[in-house]
Amino acid sequence: MEEHQHVRKGVMAAHDGMIAPPRKMFRKKKSVLPDLNVMVNGIVKGSVKELAKAITFIESNADDHYKYGQDLLQKLLPYTGNAIRIGITGVPGAGKSTFIESFGMRLCDAGHRVAVLTIDPSSSISGGSILGDKTRMEQLAKHPNAFIRPSPSGGTLGGVHRKTRETLALCEAAGFDVILIETVGVGQSEFIVRSMVDFFMLLALTGAGDELQGMKKGIMEMVDAVVVNKADGTNKSLAEKTKREYNQILHFLQPATKGWESKAYTCSALKNEGIDTIWTMMKEFRDVTEKSGVLIERRRYQTKEWLHTLIMEKLKNHFYRHPYVKEQIGQLEQDAMNGDIPPSQAAEQLFKQVYGTE
Amino acid sequence: MEEHQHVRKGVMAAHDGMIAPPRKMFRKKKSVLPDLNVMVNGIVKGSVKELAKAITFIESNADDHYKYGQDLLQKLLPYTGNAIRIGITGVPGAGKSTFIESFGMRLCDAGHRVAVLTIDPSSSISGGSILGDKTRMEQLAKHPNAFIRPSPSGGTLGGVHRKTRETLALCEAAGFDVILIETVGVGQSEFIVRSMVDFFMLLALTGAGDELQGMKKGIMEMVDAVVVNKADGTNKSLAEKTKREYNQILHFLQPATKGWESKAYTCSALKNEGIDTIWTMMKEFRDVTEKSGVLIERRRYQTKEWLHTLIMEKLKNHFYRHPYVKEQIGQLEQDAMNGDIPPSQAAEQLFKQVYGTE
């Protein structure tokens, strides 16, 4: 394929061979960075190889790599926005991997190009997912129309957030028209995923009551659909009952998306049953929200919120990493909690030291 | 009463007469501020007059008044924490004023001292509540054991938040053992009230479904009880049905307070029916959470969160009020929303200008 030849000819070649030079030696040299236009062209033509390389720059914590990734992103922005962005959450054991494999294969076979991203805040602590995504979705990983990228590891939650968002944009520029973002349901990952997708679904197990008890607050009010998985064999009638229970709850809640009634569905990812219905529903969601203008409004709002989230992240880092704050905050928290100092005075004391003003 | 004589003798006298001097003339003079120890003693002895005066300092935007209010708060902190703090929310028309009047009268008659505060973020725009709290709760306003203070007006939402929180502390220092904080349900007021009370209740009308549709997301998951009001006359059986509906929903949700099952109740504030049951339930809540340690943990957590909320408020103000940010933010938002610039670059550009670093 043409784009692969591009890669081989370009400066990327140095990294492809088994005897690539140690990266640190070259970190400061501009020459090691691939030509920007070559990369942009490669990605726009759909080269997975160059996409993967671009993502490593986006994910890199080295200054020059990060800067290069941002330049790339800037040039690729005009090619983004054409995919349907789908977020998938669910408790562990709900069968998210099996669902994504079944759903992804169905779409890839129909000619769609599907990118699968994961947000796993715990990977910022453990340094990586416990189970590799490619082992979890064996068939899909081999499909030429699929691209699977595990959660970025290392760094802060804010960093994981940024990297996944920017990876999504790169995937769109590379022509992937369906982006699936899976959340492992740890920490604030559902809220992060909801803030970057068009459509958000909960993959559920039978027995809504018990499951909801263990679920994070507010999840049910963020979902555009609940899909009760494992609706097969002896479990089928129970799944139908659970679907009714979820519909009952959804009926009481405000819809997550204006003009769209969130409903419950059943499927069996294992038996590939009900998958088509879900895709049809998602396409309908896209049509409805595109026509009403809700989709474009949501995306614009998400971008604006994202800008302010980034600003807040930066403000927090700037403040909480200040030596005086690091030294004093613990004691001041204790003093405030013990009722020895009003919190407003504690805040003022810190602020005065850092910014020279109250 | 002794504390009132204190007031008359003190420097406060200048403000009591009809011919008080214009305040601006004296704003910079320290002499106009009442003696701190006199004020502290007055409040600790339960003087409503001095409490009200102290609150005006807490609410003042003048630097020396604010500073004086903070000094007062610092000295009064050891006397705070002894009240049960109850938050009350509900859609307009649910009968919050009638409920507070009925509930408050019941407690005042039994010897409790009840302070009623209101959080109305719209008062920061309109400059005051549309309807005075004292006209809304005519009987209670006259009761010697009651103290009613409307929402602080003017200033930012953050300001309203701080003022109400500090007013709560002053009321506790003055010996009020029941603090009722009412939210008018505008903006983020429910979340603000939830963050400063022990017990949070939703006052509801009959017809749970319709009402919940119009309610803010996440409210149901914050409440320790739902009280269906207006359970009288022909409305009684419908209220019972609504109670069952709310119980059904509450059953599906995570409890707002660890170790406490949030349930629905009915009452008629107008007919004074069911009010005792609600107070008994609240006392049980207090007993249970005191014994389990959940109450003290909640309060410590609330104080810690409050410190960080104050810090974030200050950080935001410091950044967003910077001339460069004020000038550029609108255009950068537009550029980001239009896909002309990655949000991360927009954030960096602003940050570099304000703090000289990315």
UniProtKB/TrEMBL annotation, chains A, B:
One of its GO terms (molecular function) is GTP binding. CDD domains: MMAA-like. Belongs to the SIMIBI class G3E GTPase family. ArgK/MeaB subfamily. InterPro entries: GTPase_ArgK (IPR005129), P-loop_NTPase (IPR027417). Pfam families: MeaB. PANTHER family: METHYLMALONIC ACIDURIA TYPE A PROTEIN, MITOCHONDRIAL, METHYLMALONYL-COA MUTASE. It comes from the Bacteria. GO terms for cellular component: cytoplasm. This is Transporter.
